[in-house]
Amino acid sequence: MSDSRAPRIVVLAGGVGGSNFALGVREALRRRGADAASHLTIIANTGDDLWLTGVRLQPDVDSLVYALAGVNDAQRGWGRAGESERVSAELTQWGASWPWFTLGDLDLGLHLARTGWLRDGATASEVIGRMAQRWPLGARILPMTDAEVDTIVTVREGTAERSMHFQEWWTRHRAALTPVRFDNPGVAAASPAPGVIESIADADLVLLAPSNPVVSIGPILAVPGIRDALRDTPASIVGTSPIIAGSVVRGMADVCLAAIGVDSSAAAVAAHYGARADGGLLDAWLIAEEDSVLSANIDASGIAAVVRPLWMRDLDTSAALAEDAMRAGEVHRPRRGQAAR
Ligand code: GDP
Ligand code: CA
User: Fold this and answer.
1) Which of these, 186, 161, 177, 140, lies nearest to 48 by C-alpha position?
2) In Å, how far are 261, 302, 334 from 328, measured between CA atoms?
3) C-alpha pair distances (Å), 327 with each of 2, 133, 145, 308, 341
4) Which atom in ligand 1 lies closest to the alpha carbon of residue 312?
5) Cα–Cα distance between 161 and 178 in angstroms, integer?
6) From the alpha carbon of 243, which atom of ligand 1 is closest?
7) Which atom of ligand 1 is nearest the CA belonging to 318?
8) Residue 21 Cα, ligand 1 centroid: separation in angstroms?
9) Residue whose C-alpha is closest to residue 147's, from 42, 46, 260
10) Which of the residues in the chain have pLDDT under 50?
């Protein structure tokens, strides 16, 4: 450890829940007097990326970058502050975009820049590096992979099945069509982006953000090599439940969980990630006070349940949650012999 009070932290994160949590971790590190930029690596989900009207969108990466750069629209919860939508309106007139998927003008500026750089041969990692040159992020963001990976949702319509991109299912249909399964075509052939495996191996602490377990954390874990690196790391692995009092805090993660046969409960999601001792991921799992009755069951499964306030309402509550996760990682170390398989 470079600073005796500050661990080197890796956070696995999706978009909105992921960026609120990442802001909290950065702030908690700063409050410990640490240089967050050299202590915090965020591995971002890129499973819900897509091509739309000729440009490459990376929604979760962009949510993380905008939040850490402080240029996000905090009120709306996504996109850029001070955004306008003239280009999007024009694209709709041309019938050239998804009318239910608004692309802000400032946001489109980034997508155009990214698409140009990708066309010139840059990797997704290098594109994020260029974004971080313009906006100091106080953290290192790595995409889970430089490869293009999609999330495809298959829904049942009567007796037939129909598949669509995750963003269409989520944004157009508001997750109202019952999913049969989620697939990530391309993921089996993908490799982790440069630095992903190394940062996990060198970490003192790995944190799973309270992101959607199925479509945010799931694709990251599906990149070959990442799950093994997590099982092997000497770092503690601490997750935060995205479920409070039996329901998702924001979003529609419950529909995703149901599709993979996991109940919307803090204990069921912990069991889904699994205990380190059983070849799963978790050493400790933060659950809300409203769910404290589940502690004994979670403990019995070999995962240390830690009851804390889990609502991220502002920077202070997010930083307090991150500090709680850091302390849980210090207390609940992987037991000797369990980190190595
Ligand atoms: P997305 O990629 O933009 O959908 O965002 P994420 O996958 O990163 O995060 C979405 C998840 O964050 C939702 O399933 C929520 O349950 C969870 N979430 C959002 N806000 C909070 C919060 O304040 N506390 C906790 N514990 N979870 C939250
Ligand atoms: Ca997402």
Assistant:
1) 186
2) 28, 15, 11
3) 18, 32, 29, 11, 25
4) 23
5) 11
6) 16
7) 23
8) 9
9) 46
10) 1-2, 337-341
Pair of tokens at residue 116: 């140009």
Q: How big is the chain by its Cα radius of gyration, in Å?
A: 19
Residue 310 Cβ inside 6 Å of ligand 1? The answer reads yes
Question: Which pLDDT belongs to residue 249?
Answer: 87
CATH architecture of the domain covering 3-48+188-331: 3-Layer(aba) Sandwich (3.40)
- Residue 182 DSSP class: E
What local confidence, expressed as pLDDT, does residue 3 receive? Answer: 58
Distance 48 CA to ligand 2 centre (A): 6
Q: So where are the chain's domains?
A: 3-48+188-331
Distance 339 CA to ligand 1 centre (A): 28
Return the ∠ at Cα 311 (arms to 307 and 314), rounded to 5°.
Answer: 135
Give me ligand 1 centre to Cα 329, in Å.
Answer: 21
pLDDT of residue 80: 97
pLDDT (tens digit, 9 = 90+) per residue, 306-328? 999 999 999 999 999 999 999 99
Q: Count Cβ atoms below 10 Å from residue 312 Cβ, excluding itself.
A: 23
Q: Is the pTM of this model over 0.85?
A: yes
- Yes or no: say if 108 and 56 are a contact pair by the CB < 8 Å rule: no
Cβ partners under 8 Å of residue 64, min gap 6:
13, 15, 18, 19, 22, 42, 44, 141
